[in-house]
Amino acid sequence: MNAATTALLDQADAAVTQSLNAFRVFAEHINGTIGAAIPGPVAQHFLTQLHDGIHAGAIGFCHHLSPAAPEPTFWAPWAAGKVRCKTCMTYAYERVSRTTENHRCDRCRRRAITMHTTGVQLPAVVLDLPTRPLSLPPIAVTYGLCSTCHESDRTAV
Hints:
Layout: H1 3-29, H2 41-56, E1 60-61, E2 73-75, E3 82-83, H3 86-96, E4 116-122, E5 125-128, E6 133-136, E7 139-145, H4 147-155
Parallel strand pairs: 1-3, 2-7
Antiparallel strand pairs: 4-7, 5-6
């Protein structure tokens, strides 16, 4: 492995650590918890949506992101067109935070007073290509569920 690949691996590892720390801070902010679990059917649905959207070209990456400089990124079904950097995701969240969309389940689309914020962390991936190494950044997939969808996702595991 060459020095450029090693450096990119180190950057990707740091980005994953930053992303996990952001999850911890957010969980503390909403009095939630984080932990390791097998993704339930709702999480699997959203991960498949992200995967298929990227491969079909329907989901892009914000212009602040670079495959040569991994950083924490975010994707949400309610803003599904892009994987975003922290600044762009904060802006997207601020646009919906005081609207009815903020109380709409990302799975069934029903309005709910109580929303369960849920997330899945995808790791960074580094490719050691012949011309230069490239990385796919760590992606935090976050979404809000009504109580019914939240419970169905938890009991299915």
